[in-house]
Amino acid sequence: MAHEDHPHHQHEHQHPGHGQRHDHTDVDWAEMGPMLEAQAELFLPLYEHAMAWLGKRQTEPGLIVDAGSGPGVVSCLLADTFPGARIVAVDGSGPLLERARTRAERLGVADRFGILAGELPDVLGELDYPVDLLWAGRSLHHLGDQRAALAAFADRLASGGTLALQEGGLPLRFLPRDIGFGRPGLQARLDVLEAEWFAQMRADLPGSVAETEDWPALLTAAGLRPSGTRTFLLDLPAPTTDRARAYAADILTRTRDGVGDRLDAEDRAALDRLLDPDDKASVYHRPDLFVLAAQTVYTAVRTR
C-alpha cells in the first residue's frame, strides 16, 4: 500500500487527490516518488521524536517491518534507531520500494535492509520470521476492514513484539486564521471538506467496514495489550523554507483539485490566489507561512 508520509485531513494527514492509492491503477509512483520522499523528509523531525520514544518501548528488536513504507524514509530511520535490527519495507508499489532500497544503500544500511512487494495485510504472510516491531504509519486507513487488518498485523508479531500504529492527530496548518483576503478561517473550512472526502474514500474501499476510531480498543480486540499513546509535533515556524513552501503548495493544489468545486466563489478565489506564484500573498512568497502538524502513535504488545 503506497502512501504518503505526511499528514493533512489527517487522515496522513490524507489529502484529496493526494496520490494515496485507493485505486492503484492510475498513479505513476515512479514519477511521484521524488516528491513523496522529499515530503517525508520534511517530517523527519517529527519522526525522529517518535522513533526515540519507540526506542524506549522496544529496546532490541531483531526484525522490524514498515508496513506501507512508501519511499522508505521512515524505514531507514528505523534502521538508524535500531542498529541491531533487520528492516523490511513492505509496500504495494515496486517503484517506491526501489527508492527505499536506494535510500538504504545511500545511508549505509543496505546490508540489513530488505523489501517486500504486495498488498497489506496479506503480503505479511510471506515474512519468514515473526516481527518484533511493526510500524504502520498511516497505512491502516487505506485498508477496508481495519479490524481484520489489525488482527493480521498482530498475528505476525513475535511474543513480546510491538505494533506501532500511526493514525489520527490534528489537521495540518500553514496559515494564520486571517490571511489578509477572503473570509477568515479558510483552512478550517477546507478541513470540513477533507473530512467528508476522507469518509467517502473509506466507504469506497473494497470490503470497507465502518469502525469507531478508538485505536486502543481496536488494538485490544486484536489480542494486543495497549502500551502507550503519544502525539508528536512538526513545528516549522515562519519564515519557513522553500521545501516547506513547496509542500504547502502541493497540499493546497491537491485540495483545490479534489474538493475545489465544493468551495464557494470567495473561498475558491482565495485558494487560487494562495497558489498563484506571481502573487506576493501566495504560499510561495508570504512571510507568515509555517508548517504545524500533530500526529499520534499508539503502541500495543503481543503478550502470548
Features:
304 residues, alpha/beta, disordered N terminus, methyltransferase activity, Class I SAM-dependent methyltransferase, 9 helices, SAM-dependent_MTases_sf
Rounded radius of gyration (Å): 19 Å
The tally of strands reads 7
* Rough outline: globular
Helix amount: 25-40%
Global mean pLDDT: 91
Structural class per helix/strand content? alpha/beta
Strand order, main sheet: write it out.
Answer: 3-2-1-4-5-7-6
Beta strand %: 15-25%
> Main sheet, how many strands, which sense, barrel?
7 strands, mixed
Low-confidence stretches: 2-25
- Order of SSEs, N→C? HHEHEHEEHEHHEHHE
| Cα distance spanning the termini | 28 Å
Helix tally equals 9
Seen as an oligomer or otherwise, the chain set is: single chain
Biased composition (Basic residues): 8-19
Region (Disordered): 1-25
GO biological process, one term: methylation
Domain Methyltransferase type: 65-163
